[in-house]
Amino acid sequence: MIGLHTVAEVRAAEAPLLAALPEGALMQRAATGLATVCLRLLGQAYGSRVVLLVGAGGNGGDALHAGARLASRGARVTAVLLDPERAHPAGLAAFRRAGGRTLAPEAAGPALDRADLVLDGIVGIGGSGSLRAPAAALVQRAAAGPALMVAVDVPSGVDADTGAVEGAAFPATQTVTFGAVKPGLVVGAGRGYTGELHLVDIGLAEHLPAASTSQLTDADAAARLPLPDADDDKYSQGVVGVVAGSAIYPGAGVLCTGAALRTRPGLVRYAGTAADGVRSAWPEAIVTDGRPGDAGRVQAWVVGPGMGTDDDARSVLAEVLATDLPVLVDADALTMLAREPQLVRRRAAPTVLTPHEREFARFGSEVGADRLGAARALAADLGAVVLLKGEATVVADPAGTAFVNGTGTPWLATAGTGDVLSGIAGALLAGGLPAGEAAAVAAHVHGRAGQAAAAAGPLLAGDLVRHLPEAISRVRGQRPGGLPDSGP
Ligand SMILES: NC(=O)C1=CN([C@@H]2O[C@H](COP(=O)(O)OP(=O)(O)OC[C@H]3O[C@@H](n4cnc5c(N)ncnc54)[C@H](OP(=O)(O)O)[C@@H]3O)[C@@H](O)[C@H]2O)[C@@H](O)CC1
Ligand SMILES: Nc1ncnc2c1ncn2[C@@H]1O[C@H](COP(=O)(O)OP(=O)(O)O)[C@@H](O)[C@H]1O
Ligand SMILES: [K+]
């Protein structure tokens, strides 16, 4: 599990180290790691052109110390001092001793235009608000040039906690971050500015609290996807019930049921008006065109995709939510639930809501720039797990534990892929995973299936279902074997 730590947590963890270590030692660790990454990227330091963008805080200090190391290896390093009077004194002295030269921001254009590498030490975890004018102009000039763009700790202009970007920000090809991954590097707009992420260990780990926000690795997901063993039968892996699709639009029912089958193929029951379509696509499912109560026993329900929002649909939703089973609520069911949120507030069993941004807004407030904060707030308000879909899907539970998904591809932005996600998550809920983990593992596996399917070109939602066994095998670190095809 990759823990994501807020600025406050990083500052609190730094405090005892700063008190215990000789002055500047922590910054030396950071700068050494930073210079090592830059040297690797440059390949050959000697003769290469490096420009440092240096703000007035510790972030600029890191850049100056790293620049000194690069200069001592023969790189031609120029520091653009945004606030010369306040540049980090020890860093600037080391930089000058190593032969580095300085420039005023107004004179920096030509150097930026021909740099091999630009190091962004404008602002790190001490930043607030949008990037100020001189810094923003330098960032834009650097971005237009040919250089590798390396951000120090956090790309300047990105809010380290939320990923919010107001105005300009440094579009890094690489970000070298210190001590802990900050949430803003992997979520929201910030994710798009971070590039490849490098974490430098500066000794903070033992001082950091347990992370309340995490990102799953393949190994974390695999540990939550148990293999069936000799004692299992078709019921023991958990039976999932699916209410999705309609007579006119059976697709959502077919996709959702297929995804559930391909995730934990113990048993999937389907109840709804898309019964004929589901039956012919998936002979493995047990299908009724009756109500959920007619379907037989299940351990979790998925309700919503393509089911409509008429009175019948509303009464089916109420029936499912009145059970004491875990329920995943998606799509049309979210639209209905937003009108009657008490249906979920009064539940004792876990509920997972999987809105995209427009569905989220129906519950009363826009997602905004702080996606983690928004998901946490809705989860706490409704007492449900909220999986907020999008480029970086986030999952939050009512107690405040959250996950940021790290897998996926923009090719997933196509109709029906959300129905597949619901089927995967429903199967994991029925298997007994805690609701927040079921949602997070589902997003992880769904993203991996998207990546596998996209390798062959533009993907359709049905391709995701077909690639699920392969994606799950890969998450487990196994070489996927071929599976016969069935369904969409
Ligand atoms: N603590 C340590 O020992 C270690 C710290 N480390 C490093 O230090 C960094 C934290 O240093 P920090 O606390 O000095 O803050 P920092 O990120 O440099 O920002 C402050 C400067 O930014 C400016 N500024 C603010 N907003 C702005 C905006 N919108 N647009 C433009 N400018 C803006 C602000 O200006 P001011 O408001 O003061 O006028 C001030 O000049 C951390 O990220 C890591 O890199 C590592 O070496 C490990 C050891
Ligand atoms: N730009 C994107 N990058 C990565 N994943 C995306 C992007 N846009 C959408 N997705 C993913 O695609 C899926 C779309 O789901 P949804 O909006 O419910 O579509 P539908 O209702 O058509 O099934 C979600 O899992 C979402 O996270
Ligand atoms: K920075």
Properties at a glance:
15% strand; EC 4.2.1.136; 18 helices; 488 residues; 11-stranded mixed sheet; binds adenosine-5'-diphosphate; UDP-N-acetylmuramoyl-L-alanine:D-glutamate ligase; ATP-binding; alpha/beta; binds ligand NPW; binds potassium ion; Rossmann fold
Short description:
The chain is of the alpha/beta class. The chain has helices spanning 7-20, 25-42, 58-72, 89-97, 109-113, 133-144, 191-194, 218-223, 251-263, 275-281, 311-321, 331-339, 342-345, 357-361, 371-382, 417-430, 435-454, 461-475, and strands at 2-4, 49-54, 76-81, 101-103, 117-121, 148-152, 174-178, 196-200, 213-215, 239-243, 267-271, 286-288, 300-303, 327-329, 351-353, 385-388, 394-396, 402-404.
